[in-house]
Design a protein that fits this description.
The chain is α+β, with helices and mostly antiparallel strands and 328 residues long. The chain contains five helices and nine strands; from the N terminus they run E-H-E-H-E-E-E-E-E-E-H-H-E-H. It has one domain. It is globular and about 55 Å long.
């Protein structure tokens, strides 16, 4: 499999950006739709981030009171269980069709870029609470985002030294890197360029590195980001769907490789790297922290300048990798 690059806890997994001068050779992704993203027709009925409309609100409040006594299975519940049959989560993950072989590398086109069909529209990056603070400093709500998304890490030879963020398309894969997951919505115009090493950064693009079942994305230019969020019930449900999908024994791409282990045991094979442990205790701690943020109303959505400030649009994805574990 090769040697896995080291990643720091402060930055977690992430995304680095790449730019190539011969833009005419790239496969262009679709333009932003005017009915959804155009500022003139934008419906800004996002509302405050709250869980009051969840039928499971009292369940999660009670769960917090149980503390460590509650088993991990009790945390794998949805805030919005009525959405179990949502059509957008019932098809196979798009990413399977982008592999060279099952559990193989992602295959770029001849120009070195992923096709539009293989380009994620949402990426996820876990880390400590300090990572959210850094994001809020470097890409604050309503500002024109350019340059680094995150504070640079000193004493490192990796891309984090320049503020690069590491991410992946799985909502749960890197939970061992911290208790706060960040959801990053990518602009439709973003290009994904293949790189042979972690952290190869060129402005204006997302870079990706694929080796066997490893699919890492690197962001060092915030201009490709449309919005980002943390501490929301919608994001929590994506994490649970991802976990249940992997635990179901069905095919999944989340740093698990071939389907080793049984049920939740598959989750503990995700990202035990760089001294970050992925086990039941760490996942429970992370999910408890997210629930507490949701109940306290601490979650936030940050939008780049000119982006439609619409909650539904932020959480919309045409390419879920977690699939609906209740249906398929």
């Amino acid at each position: 499999m090769g040697i896995r690059p080291l990643f720091t806890a402060t930055l977690g997994f992430a995304i680095c950006v790449a730019l190539q001068s011969n833009h005419e050779t790239r496969t262009q992704r679709g333009p932003a739709s005017t009915d959804e993203r155009d500022s003139a027709s934008c419906d800004q009925k996002s509302g405050p981030i709250t869980a009051e409309d969840s039928s499971n609100l009292e369940y999660f409040k009670t769960l917090l009171n149980h503390g460590d006594a509650a088993p991990i299975e009790d945390f794998l519940k949805l805030w919005y269980p009525e959405k179990q049959g949502s059509p957008e989560a019932e098809t196979n993950p798009y990413i399977f069709a982008c592999e060279s072989i099952p559990w193989g590398v992602l295959v770029p086109e001849a120009n070195g870029y992923l096709s539009e069909a293989c380009s994620p529209d949402v990426l996820y990056s876990w880390g400590p609470r300090e990572k959210v603070t850094s994001f809020a400093q470097y890409i604050p709500d309503g500002a024109l985002w350019t340059g680094p998304m995150n504070a640079p890490v000193t004493n490192t030879n990796h891309a984090q030294g320049s503020g690069t963020v590491y991410a992946t398309f799985s909502a749960i894969a890197t939970f061992g890197y911290g208790t706060v997951p960040i959801r990053i919505k990518i602009k439709p115009s973003a290009q994904y360029r293949s790189t042979t090493s972690a952290g190869a950064s060129r402005n204006g693009e997302v870079a990706f590195y694929s080796e066997n079942n490893w699919h890492d994305y690197y962001l060092s230019d915030a201009s490709v980001v449309e919005s980002w969020s943390f501490g929301t019930p919608e994001h929590y449900d994506e994490i649970v769907r991802d976990a249940l999908r992997i635990a179901s024994g069905k095919r999944a791409l989340a740093y698990t490789g071939e389907p080793n282990g049984k049920k939740l045991d598959r989750l503990w094979q995700l990202s035990n790297y760089d001294n970050h442990v992925s086990d039941a205790a760490h996942l429970k701690k992370a999910l408890r922290a997210i629930i507490q943020m949701i109940v306290n109303g601490e979650g936030q959505i940050h939008y780049s300048k000119g982006t439609c400030r619409n909650r539904k649009l932020h959480f919309k994805t045409d390419k879920p990798t977690y699939i609906n574990p209740f249906k398929d």
